[in-house]
Amino acid sequence: MTSRSALGLAALLAGAGVTHFLRPRPYDAIIPSRLPGPPRAWTYVSGLAELACAAAVAAPRTRRAGALAAAGLFAGVFPANVKMAYDWRHRALPYRAVAYGRLPLQVPLVLWGLSVARDSGRA
Questions:
Q1: Residue 100 exposed, middle or buried by CB count within 10 Å (0-12, 13-18, 19+)
Q2: What is the extent of the structural domain holding 105?
Q3: Structurally, how many domains does the chain consist of?
Q4: Average pLDDT over residues 92-97
């Protein structure tokens, strides 16, 4: 079961990372303006970080470090989700539901990364 959970986490990270390159515009829009440089650079950096975490989680030798990095990444992108919720506060209900739903979703994602890290230490 540990391996299945780790591979699921790796797949989620890889899929999200790829979308940063295939469809960067939605990610650009949620980059907090306080970050220096162009939003597109941050979109690509975060996409690369997700792909790096995915690769690390997928490999048993680096799984623990990759899963801890993924948990940190999930926590680190929370300000972008807050910005999205704020920016979308006047949109139609389905859009607001998506934006607001992303906020509590970060908690199980962080916990998933920590769980994979913990379980990989036992293997």
A1: middle
A2: 2-122
A3: 1
A4: 94
Q: What confidence tens digit (pLDDT) does each residue in 23-39 have?
A: 999 999 999 999 999 99
Q: How many other C-beta atoms can be found within 10 angstroms of the C-beta atom of residue 40? A: 14
Q: Which of 64, 55, 70, 51 is nearest to 113 (CA)?
A: 70
Burial grade of 99 (CB within 10 A; 0-12, 13-18, 19 or more): buried
CA neighbours closer than 13 Å in the CB half-sphere of residue 109: 22
Local confidence band at 121 (pLDDT 50, 70, 90 cut-offs): confident
Residues with Cβ within 8 Å of 11's Cβ and at least 6 positions away in sequence, in order, are 54
Closest CA to 18 of 53, 59, 64, 61: 53
pLDDT tens, residue by residue, 36-69: 999 999 999 999 999 999 999 999 999 999 999 9
Q: CA-to-CA distance for 64 and 53, rounded, in angstroms?
A: 10
Residues 22 and 43: beta-carbon distance below 8 Å: no
